[in-house]
Amino acid sequence: MITFYYIISLLLGISLGSFLNALVWRTRENIKIGKDRSMCPHCRRRLTWYENIPILSFIFLRGRARKCGKRISRQYPIVELVMGVLFLFVFYFHARGELVFTPEIVRDWFIVFNLSFIFLYDFKYQEILDFSTIPSIIILVLFSPAIGWHSWQSIGLAMLIGGGFFLAQYILSRGKWIGGGDIRLGFLMGVILGWPNIVLGLFLAYIIGAVISLIMVSVKRQDFKGETPFGTYLVLGTFVAMFWGERIVGWYLSLLN
Are 72 and 80 in contact (CB under 8 A)? Predict the structure, then answer.
């Protein structure tokens, strides 16, 4: 029976990955998500049901739109597959032999989807939108006591550190170093990670960003003066600290003893 729940988790993630692709594109094109059916991003023709099957349609169509023949970005199947794996991982991480979708699983599915939107949108357009951070902050704070998550004291301190860290940089640089989206993402990180994992999340984000930037420079895909979508690194740091933060912090503290 447990296999059934794993399959459901995988398929749900893949389906939401398809929705995520559409949400990112429609948001950028200023098209309401509920307006009209799925359409080709090139010629805007409505897609039939068999052109809209996650992953499989890309394979069957050989990576090209059926009508206009334009190439379909590999982003679509990659995002769908990654989302499927992430949802599967969340279920595996929390299930621990349980055969139900617990509040913790639903909560982390919500967080993973939202972080994935922030990652993808910032990666493509170097922008973090308010609707991807502010509503999530409110929802997670309000429902935190109901799901036995972080205490409000832990969330408050972490939000102060996460948001305040970027707010200070914004004020000192007069908006040249970072944007307002990073500040709001810092607050969201605080809600998700709590204290002291927020410190780890920020530290990991900078380490990941430095490593990736050095790799990009070494292969001549970027120079040291080039802009980088820092929100993507913050998302990665948040994800690692969210699931393995306590173990990493515990391991680090054990080294000091």
Answer: no
Q: Is residue 197 helix, strand or coil?
A: helix
Of the three residues 101, 136, 166, the one that is the final residue of a domain is 101
Under 8 Å CB-to-CB from 55, ≥6 apart: which residues?
A: 14, 77, 80, 81
Give the total number of structural domains in the chain: 2
pTM of the model as a whole: 0.89
Res. 226: pLDDT tops 60:
no
Contact (CB, 8 A) for 203 and 249: no
Could you tell me if 143 and 172 lie in one domain? yes
* 102, pLDDT greater than 90: no
- Cβ atoms 40, 22 nearer than 8 A: no
Co-location of 202 and 148 in the same domain: yes
